[in-house]
Write a structure and sequence with these properties.
Strand content: under 5%
Distance between the termini: 43 Å
Number of helices: 10
Shape: elongated
Largest sheet: none
Structural class: mainly alpha
Radius of gyration: 21 Å
Order of helices and strands: HHHHHHHHHH
Number of strands: 0
Length: 206
Amino acid sequence: MFCPHCGNEAPNTAVFCPTCGVNMQEYFKADDVSSSKQANVNDEAVGMSEPKNQTKPLHKQAHWQAFVDTRYHFYDQKWSMTSQPDMKAGWNWASFFVGLFWLGYRKMYREVLILIGLFFLIDFVAVMTGIYALSHLLPFVIYFYLGMKGNALYYQHVRKKLAELQYDHLSMEAYREHGGVSGTGVVVAILLLFAYAGISTVIFGF
C-alpha cells in the first residue's frame, strides 16, 4: 500500500510509514474529517478559487485507495486524466500483454469467465466458417481492446464492488482484503486457460 500522508510505498501490514513515520491506520480512520479540513486549507491557499460545492472524485476517496491498494497511484493518475474514467482512462500495457492473467490478478473473475467464453465462441465461429485465421486474429483484437479499456473496466469493477460493500461499515484493512490483487486469481486464470485449450482441442481439433 501507499502512505496517505507522503505517498511513499509501505508494507501492507505496517502501522507507521517507514518514510515519514505517520500512523497510517489512524490517518485512514480520520480520513473523512482530515480531508474536509485539508480542503478548507487548500481553498484558503488558492483564494477560494474553486467552488465549495465541488465534490471529490470517487477514486480520490480513502476507501477507493484502500480497495485498489497495489499501484493505486498508477490508476489514480489514469482516472484523473478524464471526466469519464469508466469509459476511457488511457492505455494499460499489462491488460494488453497478459489480459487474462491481469484480470485474475485484479480479482475481476466475471471478466475472466467472459474472456474464456469469447475464446470458445471464436473457435466455434472459426470452425463453422472454415476461416481458421479468426482463432488467431480475434483474440489479438480482444487483447487490444483490453489495452484500451483496461483502466476503465477496472474503474467500473471497483465502483461496483464498493457499492456492494457500502453498507457493511468496513475498516480500511477490510477494503484492502476485498480488493487489492490476488496471486490465486492468476493461478485460476492459468488453469482456466489450460482447461479451455484442452476442451477446444477435443471439440474443435485445434
